[in-house]
Specification:
The protein is mostly helical. The chain is 69% helix and 2% strand. Helix 1 runs antiparallel to helix 4, helix 4 runs parallel beside helix 7 and helix 5 packs antiparallel against helix 7.
Length: 218
């Protein structure tokens, strides 16, 4: 029980770190007035000449991955929670609010081509559908449900750690060239890495725990 309590605390800490990291500085202040949080980077980097010319391979939409993967991980975490508990639906509601951080600005929808924002809207709609359908998973055998949910969380944590970090590192040379200074890595990036690593570690722990329980019951 002590290990389970520690693992769940680490999971909650990881969720919190991912959210805080997204709202903290990713691009620190190499020059006066230039500082962007994770939420802002996806919009700002589209103005880089290397992005407009297609020189940079990384998609700017990858900067919207943290709230999307975090939302899905929170929903999967509730897969085995009783559906009649109000706490279950509060958590799923919070997950949907987190996903809305990736929602495009009204100005972007009005003034920009659909390929710049339609994918994010589609993903958010998909998250809403998953949140509504997740109660159906409780019909599965408990072991299968646990394995599916924690495996999903583990995969999402890997994506949430790797994709935004790769995107940020891919854009750094272009940003450094633009401002004529070397750009560092802000605390938001590190918190996102730490948070997803913590969540992934917790998921692996519970996956291993269920393997042990399964062997004992054979």
């Amino acid at each position: 029980m002590i290990k389970d309590y520690f693992a769940e605390t680490l999971l909650k800490l990881g969720f919190t770190a991912i959210l805080l990291g997204y709202l903290l500085v990713w691009l620190p202040q190499p020059v006066v007035g230039l500082s962007f949080i994770g939420l802002e980077l996806g919009e700002w980097v589209k103005f880089l000449p290397q992005v407009r010319s297609g020189e940079i391979i990384a998609d700017r939409n990858l900067f919207y991955v943290p709230p999307i993967t975090l939302s899905l991980m929170m929903i999967l975490w509730t897969a085995n929670w009783p559906n009649r508990r109000w706490q279950t639906w509060v958590m799923r509601g919070l997950a949907l609010l987190v996903a809305l951080l990736a929602f495009p600005a009204i100005e972007a929808i009005r003034d920009e081509p659909a390929d710049q924002w339609l994918l994010r809207i589609g993903v958010i709609i998909g998250i809403v559908i998953i949140a509504l359908l997740i109660p159906l998973l409780r019909r599965l055998p408990i072991r299968m449900l646990e394995i599916l949910s924690w495996s999903g969380i583990c995969l999402l944590a890997l994506l949430g750690l790797g994709l935004p970090t790769w995107a940020y590192l891919s854009f750094l040379p272009a940003i450094s060239e633009l401002i004529g200074q070397k750009v560092g890595i802000g605390p938001g990036v590190w918190l996102n890495i730490f948070g997803n690593f913590s969540v992934g570690l917790t998921a692996l722990y519970f996956l291993g725990l269920w393997r042990v329980l399964q062997k004992k019951n054979l």
